[in-house]
Amino acid sequence: MRDMLSSRDREISSLHRQLDTSHTELAETGRVKEMALKENRRLQDDLATMARENQVRKQYVTLNYRTIYCLLTYSGTSKLLYP
């Protein structure tokens, strides 16, 4: 009987250690998840900023192209662009 109780006590102690380890791993997983979410938000913000900057640059290039086209057209040299 005493051996059976001792065996049960060891089993319970082992289960408590496993539970403590699981809690520690869960807490670490939560920290890693939170860091990944923050990094994801930062990267999304960076991507949105780059997309806006790219749009501005595209508009600038388009405006410059139109300006060059108009200058060449009105100066009679548009044939250089379109032979």
Description:
It contains one helix and no strands. By secondary structure, it is mostly helical. The model has no long low-confidence stretch (mean pLDDT 90).
What order do the helices and strands come in, and which of them pair?
Blueprint (H helix, E strand, L loop, with lengths): L1 H73 L9
Brief write-up:
This protein is mainly alpha-helical. The protein has one domain.
Descriptive labels:
rod-shaped; 83 residues; single chain; mainly alpha
Structural class: mainly alpha
User: What is the overall pLDDT average?
Assistant: 90
- Secondary structure: helix percent: over 70%
User: Approximately what portion of the residues adopt beta-strand conformation?
Assistant: under 5%
How many strand units?
0
Spans of 5+ residues with little confidence (pLDDT < 50)?
none
Q: Span between N and C termini?
A: 104 Å
What is the H/E order?
A: H
